[in-house]
Fold:
Amino acid sequence: MVVQPHVARPIAAQGERSEKFSGETDTQKRVAMDAWGHEDLLCRNYILNGLSDMLYNMYSSTNTASAFWESLEKKYKTEDVGLKKFIVGKFLEFKMVDFKTVMDQVQKFQTIMHDLHAERMKLSESFQVAAMIEKLPPLWKDFKNSLKHKQKQMELEDLIVRLRIEEDNRLSEMNSKKLQIEAKKI
Structure:
């Protein structure tokens, strides 16, 4: 965890009186600046101490904790944008397949939706429902079309329950067909 350093206000130009130091002597100003310099050094070195050797070599040339903080913030804010694009890409590319159970794939899709939410990218529930219906596997084409033509607005939980029921029905239907085929062989 990176701690934001305490950044002191800039010193007034020579001859000007800073509001903070008004009425103070030069000695008091010097003591305050020395204290700030010491705190800045401690903060900078504390952060550098937690870095890997490669990162240490990269950031050890920064002069102040605030410059160090700004460079880290710039780098990692850029990476956050990259992470958002990666998660959106996963969402857009996700497609359910016939050879895996639908409920396992629904769970994976929900994980992607959770990742989007964690990145503060909100999607309405009706959009999530429509997206999940659209991503159903090809063998579920008829069921997908029947869901699309429903007039009533469906919540995500209702859709998941319907998918679970449909998958259970399909599995039991396949098992009964297997039993009939085996019975005919005997």
